[in-house]
């Protein structure tokens, strides 16, 4: 079993314990942490924690991850575009429209279903039985490189790299309008939208720090082709950040109210480059996912 032990610092004081732990451990979802708390797996100063508990400075929070549960979701023979694979990790080029892991309304046809068929039982179990192997995610309509882990040691190593912001994640996107600068940094916290709970937003009060570095690749009459490098990895980060500076992504039906003149299915966002330190060898590995056909064609049209 993997064991976690944290001494709470003053900066985290008064945070709810589930939120606090999700901030400290990027590899575990908040819902999975809430499940552990409900099952009295998580202790504070040796006493099982309550879900409503707000942590105090110097609290000692401890828990052990239960043994991985055999997923009750079905493996499916869905073709994968594999960019890199060895005994520890697999990097795939996720297509548009594919959900990363099963959730309400999407229990089949996901990347996890495909990975379970391809990898068999060789997937990490740290992130719960619904997300075997999954250490990070990209949106359903975002294409490109995504890494999954085949064992818990690799998962913990990659999760730590994500926490340290040492994973090289570079996206390309087409946004509305013409950016004034050739490059820039957006450093604005992201959290839940105050009224629309399915959306994220720049949230100065309750958001977590989010940093996106962007640079212009090419300018068009009404649009700009940009590269965005993630320093952090918040939900919908690039989409929210670019919209926050007045340049939402072309095709984004959630964070833009502009009418798209092209027949697109969601935002023009592609996870092109993924670089990481290999969990076994320590060597730097970098893969690139080629642009999908619709994206290349759109650039030619523009």
Describe this protein's structure.
By secondary structure, the protein is of the alpha+beta class. It has three domains: 3-64, RNA-binding S4 domain (Structural Genomics Hypothetical 15.5 Kd Protein In mrcA-pckA Intergenic Region, Chain A, Roll); 82-164 and 271-297, 2-Layer Sandwich (Pseudouridine synthase); 169-267, 2-Layer Sandwich (Pseudouridine synthase). It has helices at residues 17-24, 30-38, 111-119, 152-163, 237-244, 293-301; strands at residues 3-7, 43-44, 47-48, 60-64, 82-85, 89-94, 143-149, 168-176, 183-187, 190-192, 200-202, 211-219, 223-230, 269-277, 284-288. The strands form three sheets. Strands 5, 6, 7, 8, 9, 12, 13, 14 and 15 form a nine-stranded mixed β-sheet that branches. A hairpin with a 3-residue loop joins strand 12 and strand 13. Helix 1 (17-24) crosses helix 2 (30-38). The protein is globular, with a radius of gyration of 20 Å. It starts with a strand and ends with a helix.
